[in-house]
Amino acid sequence: MNDYGPPLQRPYQCFMGRWEGLTKSFTPRGDFIESTAVHMEVYWVDDNTWHLHEAFERFYPLGKPVVFETDIRVDGKFCWGENEFIRLDGSEITPFNYVFTIHSDVSKTTVYNNHYFIDPNQRRIITHKVKDGKTELYQIQDFVRVA
Questions:
Q1: d(CA 124, CA 146)
Q2: Res 5 pLDDT > 90
Q3: In this model, does residue 60 exceed pLDDT 90?
Q4: Which domain holds residue 112?
Q5: Per the domain annotation, does 11 fall within a domain?
Q6: CB-side exposure of 18: number of CA atoms within 13 Å?
Q7: Which of 1, 34, 128, 132 fits as disulfide partner to 112, beta carbons 3.0 to 4.6 Å?
Q8: CATH number where 81 lies
Q9: What is each CA distance from 39 to 34, 107, 114, 116, 132, in whole angstroms?
Q10: Is residue 9 situated within a structural domain?
Q11: Contact 141/22 with Cβ under 8 angstroms?
Q12: pLDDT by residue (tens digit) across 15-59?
């Protein structure tokens, strides 16, 4: 192996900060359903744990505000966490592209998320929700880091 020097940043560091975003939901056929604001804060709890605070102004399909608080453990490029609503695991694929699998007790779906950092302060999440082996919903979330 060649020595390329240390990585620019540790895995998941690019998630840290306060983010403001918009979630757009679509049917399996690509028809727009609705959009809603999302407020997110992500910070390190310790060297191997980060905290995700995610507040949806209107969570589809519940149609009401929902807040998720999750501590997420890190082991290298792999992470995992759970709260009373979800169980998740994820991996860093490249320093600015992450994939997550989320098992949601809220929507009763398996959620596949692809987080792509357009630049250090802009992130897009493409979501595919599957229920009983069929696509239930697609979502796109666009976020801007504000702090």
A1: 15
A2: no
A3: no
A4: 29-145
A5: no
A6: 3
A7: 128
A8: 2.40.128
A9: 17, 20, 18, 18, 30
A10: no
A11: yes
A12: 999 999 999 999 999 999 999 999 999 999 999 999 999 999 998
Query: In sequence order, which residues have a C-beta less than 8 Å from that of residue 3 and are 6 or more positions away?
Result: none
Total-model pTM: 0.91
Half-sphere exposure of 128 (CA within 13 A, CB side): 9
CA angle 114, 131, 97 (to 5 degrees): 5
Q: Which helix (H) or strand (E) holds 124?
A: strand 122-131
In this structure, the strands spanning 122-131 and 32-46 are: unpaired
What is the number of structural domains in the chain?
A: 1
Give the percent of the chain with pLDDT over 90: 86
Q: 1 lies in a domain?
A: no
Query: Phi-psi bin for 96: left (phi > 0), alpha (psi -120 to 50), beta?
Result: alpha
What secondary structure does DSSP assign to 17-72, as a single string?
EEEEEEEEEE-TT--EEEEEEEEEEEEEEETTEEEEEEEEEEETTTTEEEEEEEEE
Domain assignment of residue 51, yes or no: yes
| Nearest C-alpha neighbor of 138 from the set 54, 61, 28, 53 | 28
